[in-house]
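quick one
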Amino acid sequence: MSKTAMGTNNLDAFWMPFTANKQFKQNPRLLVSAKDMHYKSHDGREILDGTAGLWCCNAGHGRPKIVEAVQKQVAELDYAPAFQMGHPKAFELAARLAAMLPSPLDHVFFTNSGSESVDTALKIALAYHRAKGNGTKVKLIGRERGYHGVGFGGISVGGISGNRKTFGNALSGIDHIRHTHDLARNAYTRGEPEYGVEFADDLEKVIALHDASNIAAVIVEPVAGSTGVLIPPKGYLKRLREICTKHDILLIFDEVITGFGRLGAPFAVDYFGVVPDLVTTAKGITSGVIPMGAVFASSDIYQAFMNGPENLIELFHGYTYSGHPVACAAALATLDTYEEEGLLTRASELSDYWENALHALKGLPNVIDIRNLGLIGAIELQTHRRRPDKTGIPGFPQCIRKGRADPHDWRHHRLVSASDNQQRTDRSSVRYARRCVEELG
Ligand code: PLP
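structure w/ pyridoxal-5'-phosphate:
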């Protein structure tokens, strides 16, 4: 068959990411429009976006200010290189973002996604130690059940075996500390779990093994999102900070999910009162409208690169689309929207309702844990009877279809609802989670 004869509705050509392509293409679920908290499907159904897209549409869909800014920007300056040139909105946005995070996180490097932000942060960490004359500090430490995107750096420090096993060892010189999920002691915790601060001491063990002189950085999600909403035990992040400072190891918070208001504070940095050396972000920076990411770096890190001759490039790293004008315009309008509507702290007003509603599902069949913080929550279910080998929790929003989870999809049997949309509280997402659990029971 010629390519044109295949027709425009052929689904075969698109190799879909993180998707069971064969299954999807037999029964496609296509989204054709979106407004506020709802999608419209190709067959006319209204679908609740109970997970804010892929945890990224923090202001909801079709927000007028963002739409307008993108339309205007694309007509005015559709592209400008960021290498040896610049455009005003990239500088404006960087300054505005830097002002949102506590000092010394005063510098911003633009990327196009969370994966790129992670790889950028890891590279900055390696280059920083080298710039300071500590060239042996090259090891990177991640954590079990961490998700840091799909670049080679991200999968290496990440802790999801499914993302790693097919791709060899990717980066060498990586080690991991244990995850903090402890059902035996912390099941049904509301907010930060009481037990487990000592999980942070794993880092001391890893340092004793490899020696601090060889370790560049530790990366963790302040709240692990994609592997099932793992909330850090009280005091855990603070202890990680102390250990890193003691051994001159950079601490990186991956805030691709927690950034831009999901916990009820602008960033997890604010929520937990712990300031790392680098912060990776993406998703909510443009409310998902245009791909963009940003890495925040401390002044100490930035200044370490600024000691050479003026005419030399300090960091051999960057993307064709770093600080893309349309993405910058979208981000600036998104920040305006967040500010005008109080969305960066709105989750703190809604979190009690969300918490009580989620925990009301305790006691339903197969439910073994419920946990929540800000507007993130998870309902953990017993392992699937027919697929006991499937013990991992895939991170992506599973319950996208309104009204019905697919009972044959093992993933529904582990984690029912990942997060609410933070634009406004939505009773139907909790009702929906309840229906899913009941159906699966
Ligand atoms: N880091 C974290 C914590 C994430 O949750 C994600 C995506 O879900 C990423 C990195 C990767 O982001 P992206 O898919 O934009 O590359």
